[in-house]
Specification:
Mean pLDDT of chain A: 87
Oligomer: heterodimer
Structural class of chain B: mainly alpha
Strand content of chain B: under 5%
Low-confidence stretches of chain B: 16-28
Largest sheet of chain B: none
CATH architecture of one domain in chain A: 3-Layer(aba) Sandwich
Number of helices of chain A: 7
Structural class of chain A: alpha/beta
Order of helices and strands of chain A: EEEHEEEHHHEHEHEEH
CATH superfamily of the largest domain in chain B: MetI-like
CATH class of one domain in chain A: Alpha Beta
Distance between the termini of chain B: 32 Å
Helix content of chain B: over 70%
Low-confidence stretches of chain A: 266-271
Radius of gyration of chain A: 19 Å
Strand content of chain A: 15-25%
Number of domains of chain B: 2
Mean pLDDT of chain B: 85
Order of helices and strands of chain B: HHHHHHHHHHH
Number of strands of chain B: 0
Number of strands of chain A: 10
CATH topology of one domain in chain A: Rossmann fold
Amino acid sequence: MGVVVEVRSVSKVYASERGPVNALQKFSMTVEEGDFVAIVGPSGCGKTTLLWGLTGLHPFTGGEALMLGTPMQRPRKDIGIIFQQANLLPWRTLLQNIMFPLEIMREDLSNYRERVKGLIASVQLDGFENHFPRELSGGMQQRASIARALSFDPKILLMDEPFGALDAYTRDEMDTLILGIWKQTRKTIAFVTHRIEEAVYLANTVYVMTPRPGTNSAVFQIDLPRPRPEGITMDRKYFEIVAEIKRKIVSDVEEQKRQGLYSSQAYSTVT
Amino acid sequence: MDQYDKELEEKVPEFEGHAGPASHGALDISATVTAVQIHGWKQVLGILAVAVLVIGGWELAVRLTKVPEFVFPTPSAIAVAMVTNMPTVYPHFFITLAELAAGYVIGAAIGLFMAAVLTQVPYIEKVITPYILLLVTTPTIALVPLLMLRMGFNIWPRIIAVALSVGPMVMINATTGFRRTDLAKIALAKSYGATTFQIFRKIRFPLALPMINVGLLVGGIFGLITAVASDMFGGKFGLGNRISYYSSLARMASFFAVILLVSLIGISIWIIMAAVGKKWASWQE
């Protein structure tokens, strides 16, 4: 098992009307092949910026990210992304939506029929192939977007708070689903979330980011059994890890407040 | 380079803000494309009852008051005129239809193409827009006498007039459609390595289709008006010419029969575009 994601002190400065905004500052991270890594931090700390940088959609302004050994410069076929919202195309059926990346990549769709069929089954959407997104619930839409991200068999999956828009019950279901898919496909997953409970439940390693500008605060190795036993979220050890990470984030915010740096505004200017 | 590249590079798109019918172009009558939906026999019955009431009332009122036919004809007289006059009117019907069809195809094609190209370059779009507005607001019908002077009393000045009234309508609505860009969906396509052309074909064009549909409908109606009106200017053919002819002879039943033919064309345009809209815009609800 080698390192497949190597983030070397990346930074991102956005241009804004009120001057440059430091969204991300010298953040580093390594992810092993087949690993499940979560990134947490207070809102506005640049988690999403980091992930968008890793996708190649928003190039970093400093540092570099090696994905599968080569620098990330533009979107690539070996990396799949799952966004905050399912973002399905409303004029396409579920099946057409899942095939969309393959169409863009000009793949021969007939080679993928079986694969896509299996994917639809694994996200429990069999029988809904010809439904339009508006006929599906939010959870079903997000499941379809997972199948879409997997359709072209990327090696790395990047997830940007994928279940943030769902209700609590559906979210728990999705967490279980994603663990199942991870176990089955052995993809490398980098998962951004603001829910620490979710991060601890899902990941092997949790990276904590400081408030804006986001940078490394701490790394936690989650020492919980795999596969996650039933009722693990009621377990004392689980709670202790969650509490420890929460304390770390709170103390980071306190520290920044003491230094007069902290602003609850997501886009505060840095002079 | 795509104008949205830069925007996309600088900010994470809003996922909540979906590309609804947020921005409206001039003459957006999208509501009328979907307004009439027939649900069940009760509604059909109601619509028929109104027709019977209006036509029957009209017939009765004209007969009771003994208004002569050259002032105001009865519906039955119009129906008779429609049937008996058919042989003499239908060549004119096909001429007007041909003017409309040819002008429409030319105008709509140019309008669509211009909208697709101009929205790629915001600067040119801004520079051109006032002139398009000028074309939309100027009754192109006023150009017909000039065109006839240069080209003669044939079908060409009329086709050009129709194209000139259809083109800007299609263009202005299609432009609104193409501007309706959903950054989140573009980001999605880009994350799979989509080219600018793929983004246009697979995201921006389908997103624009509902507004293109509206443009094609408004353009069709404007084209019909222009075709009939330019028939009236000169040359002894076309439905517009028949309208002036029958009214000058005070043959009001025939006059109304021709008007009915014109509105039949208009209704057909509406029905076709509503059907097209069902295919193109049904995802919008």
